[in-house]
Specification:
Strand content: under 5%
Structural class: mainly alpha
Radius of gyration: 20 Å
Helix content: over 70%
Oligomer: single chain
Largest sheet: none
């Protein structure tokens, strides 16, 4: 909802200052909440927390970097789909940002369905990651097909499946390494 409202505000030049003001207020509120939470910590809790994070990063650093790469690829693909829908299908910013809903619903469903096969995590992770990689490699071809056939539903379906395989693979990977 925030993405759609933000895109709609940004499309209206006279309302852009509202979006900027809202962003500044949310940022100030977030810093204030972090400050309040941090003042309640003692020095030993902070030290313990830092040491814990350091051990986790040493143990799972490559894994965390890999998941961050998955996340970035998924976000970049969604952004390309949004820009593509604006440029080739003449959608507005707010209509194009609806693709994020398709991607989010896909990620939620992929996350939920991954629980059903949690006993075969590694094998499933390899299979689902393979599908994710195939979709990413065929991404521009699929977008070109959607433009050639002039079917926007293909772009929406692509956004859904990117989210679906992303959510499924990340949940399987996290459950495998953190169980």
């Amino acid at each position: 909802v925030g993405t759609i409202v933000g895109a709609k505000i940004w499309e209206t030049p006279s309302l852009r200052w509202v979006g900027v003001l809202y962003f500044i207020l949310i940022l100030a509120f977030a810093f204030w909440m972090l400050f309040l939470a941090d003042t309640r910590r003692t020095k030993t809790e902070y030290h313990f927390s830092f040491a814990l994070y350091q051990r986790l990063f040493i143990r799972y650093g490559i894994f965390m970097i890999g998941l961050a790469c998955f996340w970035q690829i998924s976000v970049e693909a969604s952004q390309v789909a949004i820009n593509y829908s604006k440029e080739f299908f003449d959608k507005t910013n707010s209509a194009s940002s609806l693709l994020l809903i398709f991607s989010s619903v896909g990620a939620i469903l992929g996350n939920i369905l991954s629980v059903k096969i949690s006993e075969k995590r590694l094998k499933s992770f390899i299979w689902i990651t393979g599908w994710f990689v195939v979709i990413i490699f065929l991404f521009s071809t699929i977008l070109g097909l959607a433009n050639t056939l002039d079917i926007y539903l293909i772009v929406q379906t692509l956004a859904f499946f990117i989210g679906f395989f992303f959510g499924w693979a990340v949940n399987l990977a996290e459950s495998y390494f953190f169980s």
